[in-house]
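Box 3.1 A note on notation
Throughout this textbook, protein chains are presented in two layers. The first layer is the amino acid sequence; the second is a token string describing backbone geometry. Keep the layers aligned when reading.
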Amino acid sequence: MKKYKIDLARYAVLTVASLIMAIDYRTFVDWGGLYPGGAAGLAMLVQRFSQDICNAIGWSVTVPFGPINLVLNAIPVWIGFKYIGTRFTLQSLYVIFVSGFLTDLVPVEWITSFISEADLLRLQTDPFVTSLFGGIIFGFAIALCLRWNATSGGMDFIAIFLSEKKGRETWNIVLAFNATILVIGGFKFGWTGALYSIVYQFVYLQVIHLMYRTYQYQTLTIVTTQPERVCEAIHRMTHHGATVIDARGGYKGDRKSVVMSVVAADETSHVYALCKTIDPDAFINAVSTSRVIGRFYLRPRD
């Protein structure tokens, strides 16, 4: 029963996140002619190309976003099922489907009815404000998905696969892919939207960085008289090991031990509280770590 309730809460949150993404797509992204990163950005580029073709031919149809986004995510989803994890990929596929479906379904008039005409005009005509608020909203939605073990698909699957399975840096690949979308969009639909998409993408990445810290690392240096108990507590809580160094206090000259361990940033406060429970006089220094090389435990996705 408890697992059932957790799964129900998970899909409820993912549905809300998908709705937020859809609202962001229909408002700020459309108003500014912006492009999100990854498969969603490519799907919007294809959608806008297709819509122009339909308009030129004289077909009075609206090209949907959802089916295009779903097709473009086919290969990344296959990579997810094969190399990353079934549950994680299924939950991400749910987000891809629901966000695409809602993007085509949610009426813009209903969304904008809560905004005054003056504010609506400002949002629709000021590209900086559009990209700033749009990036904040999109970043919040993506962070919600990540915290509940899902993603919006596309390049996220490829980045996770290369990082966890191949040990390769992914930032340059993702950056090159997004830059290609912006260049093509700039040539076809104008450079204003493409350039402000850089602001949009920067803002939502910063929001994700603030809200989701699982793949950010911190090195803990703990000066304590209880090294064995501290090491055991760290391993029990985080599944990470630790290194113990014999030391001597510089002021009193008493014998101490220095315990060093690298943990996920979102685990730091829990480790800190546990260590202070074991040794109230422990001195703890936490330093951000940009990269870890070697064996490092990653929490399973499934």
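The beta strands are 217-224, 243-248, 255-264, 283-289. The radius of gyration is 23 Å.
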